[in-house]
Amino acid sequence: MSIDKQQDYFLNDDVIYHYTNLYTALEYILDNRIDNRTLRLSPRGNSIDPVENWDDYLPMGVDFANSKKSYDDKEIKDIYNYLKNRLLKAKQVCFCMNNSSESKLEHTREETMNRYGFLKPRMWSQYADSFRGVCLAFSKNKLKENNPKLVPKTIIYAQLHKLPKKKIDFYAKDLDDLGIEKCKKKYQDKLDEFIFSKHQDYFGENEFRFCSFSEYEYDYLDISHSLKGIFFIENKISEFAKKSLLSYGREYKVNPLGIKWGGFGIGFNIYTNSGNKSSLE
Question: Cβ–Cβ contacts within 10 Å for residue 31, how many?
């Protein structure tokens, strides 16, 4: 089995990856005792990104040119409150995508690893407990199918001065022309440009995000029948943890992949459902 044949199973636009710690993966995401297998969407205010976790203030400037509305118009206040509440209620769960546009013919094996969303050292370090955690692969299309009420979008990256601003420039004439409901939708879309954007420094994450805007503190992403892969770092987890992950591999009918990462380069152990192991060096 060649490395390209095995890895190209994951190299397509449908596969997205979620990094987490081992405890969360074993006790909450993969646990077969849980009827509804889910990933939790957390409030944006819990994010470590200072742009995302400062969402309690939303300035709005109003231009009344060519409009019959006035500053104290109730509909304008309703629109502002609607948009602010949407921002305050925003919850999210994040994934990495592949860089599948890169041609494998132009790189050495180690360089082509940059194409895969499960081989991001900073993500393993920051979100997977300093390489001691787990990366899970999912079908993006199946997640969308399972969760029609959530909003899925690819993150846009830009330098700070080019990022969408957390500010509403409201034109009162839009309310005259569109009515309140269509006007809410128009400015909601503008606000979502801010919600689905990040600083250019995070570009390597290649993020895809599901968001919700319910009244609940947390929402949950239904991951039923969407799991496509389980990844772990071979020399960073215990034998007990590895056996647990391999057991879940058999249950979900996926072949867990152990990553051997070091100064020598990169290699893989592929664990089949029959219990066999094959190595790719």
Answer: 11
Please give the residue that has the higher pLDDT: either 220 or 31. 220
Category of 47 on φ-ψ map: left (φ > 0), alpha (ψ -120 to 50) or beta: beta
Residue 141 has a CB neighbour count (10 Å cut-off) of 14
Give me the residue spans of the domains in the chain.
3-55+90-155+196-280
pTM, two decimals, is 0.89
> What does the H/E/C string look like for the chain?
CCHHHHHCCCCCCCEEEEEECHHHHHHHHCCCCCCCCEEEEEEHHHCCCCCCCCCCCCCEEEECCCCCCCCCCHHHHHHHHHHHHHHHHCEEEEEEECCCCCCHHHCCHHHHHHHCCCCCHHHHHHHCCCCCCEEEEEEHHHHHHHCCCCEEEECEEECHHHCCCCCEEEEHHHHHHHCHHHHHHHHHHHHHHHHCEEEHHHHHHCEEEEEECCCCCCEEEECCCCEEEEEEEHHHCCHHHHHHHHHHHHHHCCCCEEEEEECCEEEEEEECCCCCEEEEC
| Residue 102 token pair | 């890169």
Residue 55's nearest CA partner among 153, 194, 160 is: 194
* Calpha distance 108→105 (Å, rounded): 8
pLDDT-based confidence at residue 105 (cuts at 50, 70, 90): very low
Cα 76 to chain centroid, rounded:
33
- Tell me the per-residue pLDDT of 56-91, one tens digit each, with 9 for 90 and over: 678 899 999 999 888 678 999 999 999 999 999 999
Closest CA to 256 of 275, 240, 238: 275
Condensed to tens digits (0 to 9), the pLDDT of residues 167-218 reads: 899 999 999 999 999 999 999 999 999 999 999 999 999 999 999 999 999 9
